[in-house]
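The protein record quoted in full:

***
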Amino acid sequence: MSKIYLVTGPPGVGKSTLVSKVIRRLKSAGVIVGGCTTSEVRSGGARTGFGVTDLTTGRTGVLASVGSRFGPRVGRYRVNLSDLASVGAAGLEAAASSSELIVVDEVGPMELVSPDFRRAVRKCVASGKPILAVAHERLEDDLLNELRTGAEQVFSLTVENRDDATEALASALLAAAGGPKA
């Protein structure tokens, strides 16, 4: 089983920003980081969707969009199951075999509608490699409950602790990934 470092907190508190800072810190220490991240897509100041990025290849796709007519609906968005599988899940599966640290940003309602994404996260957990995962704070789901139960450490991010959390989390993950590389 992998050591799982879980980041949770309310929307907008800076979970993805924290993960980005930690990724930069670990990469600068020579750690091979793989997996996937998500990001907001904005147009004219309004959020219109979310993108997904494979951290190993840099490949990007559309996770969800307000403009799509296809895919499962989550709130006002339609989830793009094809890009979530070919970019997000594929990035996780590749990381399970070739990375020293796996990042899953985020395990939330949009990602959880994809059987491919769920399967890829479980493959990552079975890999034995350390995992940095962002988990939706209040959502109840069997996969999220497995991650919460198996977590080595849970970082509940707040406005007050988010600046200090970067170094604490980076240090814990650096140790879990085998320390700085030469």
Observations:
- The longest strand covers residues 33-43.
- The CA atoms of residues 102 and 131 lie 5 Å apart.
- Helices lie at 15-28, 81-98, 115-127, 142-150, 162-176.
- The longest helix spans residues 81-98.
